[in-house]
Amino acid sequence: MARRTITKAAVPPPAPTPQLVKYDHFAELGVSGLKQWGGQIYEDILRDLQGVKKYKKLKEFRENSEVAGALLFVIEQMMRKTDNQIVAFDANNPADVDTAEFISSVLFEDMEEAWNQHVVVAADNFLSYGFSPHEICYKLRGGYVDDPLRRSKFTDNKVGIRRLSLRPPETAYRWQMNSVGDVFALEQQGPPDYILHPIPYEKLAHYIFRGGKSNPEGRPLLRNAYPSWVYLTGIKNYEAIGVERDLAGLPVVRVPVSIINDPANAVVYGQFRQLVTNIRNNEQAGIVFPEDRDASGNRRYEIELLRSGGTKAFDTDTIIRRYQHDIALVIIGQWIFFGLERIGTQALAGNITEIFGFGVEGMLDEIAEVVNTKVIPKLLSLNGLPLERAPKLKHGRVQKADLNAVDAITEPCWCRV
Fold it and tell me: Residue 78: which of 407, 395, 371 has the closest Cα?
């Protein structure tokens, strides 16, 4: 009879005695958790959207998606129609009012581009790419002179802003930053010289959309719709090829077996393959084909077009609309389909457009926050004005989309010819 062995459960080691750790109250002891190597960000789970190559993919999405383009256009126009003002720290204090009027003159009257245009450019970039860096280019307000660094509507020789010049996200090569997420500079590389241009972070108005982990590149609004756009693009391409093949027919070339099997005829066989894959009703509308017959009088070479035998198993129109709705859903923009497809109620559309308007106001808040915490204080400091009584940039309410106008646009129009 075998002896049974009883094994005692392993006793866990005693927990270490907690000890008091001395630390610096002003030091950051943890890290941001941001996945970055050499100043380039690798936070996204999709490889296509990691590193600097992601800008090409996002730009292609931004410029080739009809739904994304339409909704971003609506956002831009809503921002253009929103009022902006500089509010004094104390409206009853003449000095505070003068400071507010000075900041208002700098931002709204004396830059090379209109303020609303700057807001639209900034929003378009941080919604499409996740961030929008603008270099703050200063000038001395020296009146109407030839020197662009002094040209101004004002002659008070105060430090103003010449322009908030966009440094396109696709030219951002890497960031100079530490492990806790502090950014010191942006290194830009792009046309026309393609050399590295380090821009100190203090000189940037850096707008970020949905930042997290101290990520200076944020998260684009269109990011969640990117997979739908990839599938949608593939289906559209296959649909276009299928339509072309159904209209022109599928080309088939019959050649002797010796042409296919004989290595000596590899060049001829390649020419026939190129012919059958490139044939379409455009510049190749005519074909020069050999008239060669066998001993029985049958053609040795023959070309024909095979036709489709019936309808396809999938309704690509329905699939395409579903992916378009998915893209619009990310931006709470489903309401644009209500007038086009006659779906949904007026009350539901009104609620969604109101939420859409709140989202646009949130985007304007992001821009105002950067201006209030960085641009205005830096401008006051350069002019020797007190920072503790800084004025604030505030925007008005965003107007809702007029659904009656959308219905009027999409209503069938009949005219006499």
Answer: 395
Distance (Å, whole) CA 373 – CA 382: 15
Q: What is the DSSP letter of 309?
A: -
State pTM to two decimals. 0.73
First to last CA, the chain: 108
Same domain, 84 and 169: yes
Query: Before 192, cis peptide (omega within 30)?
Result: yes
Judge whether 123 lies within some domain. yes
Identify whether 142 is part of a domain: yes
3-state secondary structure (DSSP) of residue 132: strand
89 and 184 assigned to the same domain: yes
Closest-CA residue to 220 (of 65, 94, 13, 373): 65
Q: Are residues 145 and 283 in the same domain?
A: no
CA angle 57, 60, 63 (to 5 degrees): 150
Count other Cβ atoms within 10 Å, centred on residue 308. Answer: 12
> What does each C-alpha distance from 152 to 111, 161, 306, 310, 352 come to in angstroms?
8, 10, 71, 71, 44
Per-residue pLDDT of 141-200, as tens digits, reads 999 998 888 999 999 999 999 999 999 999 999 999 988 888 999 999 989 889 999 999
DSSP secondary structure string, 89-126? S-TT-HHHHHHHHHHHHHHHTSSSS-HHHHHHHHHHHH
Q: Which two tokens stand for residue 24?
A: 């610096």
Which residues does residue 139 pair with via DSSP β-bridges, in sequence order? 160
Looking at the fold, whether 75 and 187 belong to one and the same domain comes out as yes
DSSP structure string for 367-383: HHHHIIIIIHHHHHHHT
Domain boundaries, position 156:
36-222+343-410
Is 15 domain-assigned? no
Is residue 292 domain-shared with residue 194, that is, in the same domain? no
Q: Do the domain assignments include residue 311?
A: no
Residue 157 and residue 144: Cα distance in Å, rounded?
12
pLDDT band at 64 (very low <50, low <70, confident <90, very high): confident
Task: Give the angle 78-65-330 at the CA atoms, nearest 5°.
Answer: 60
Provide the number of structural domains found in the chain. Answer: 2
Q: Do residues 69 and 170 share a domain?
A: yes
Please give the full DSSP string across 350-370, using - where no structure is assigned.
Answer: HHHHHHHHHHHHHHHHHHHHH
Residues 288 and 157 in one domain: no
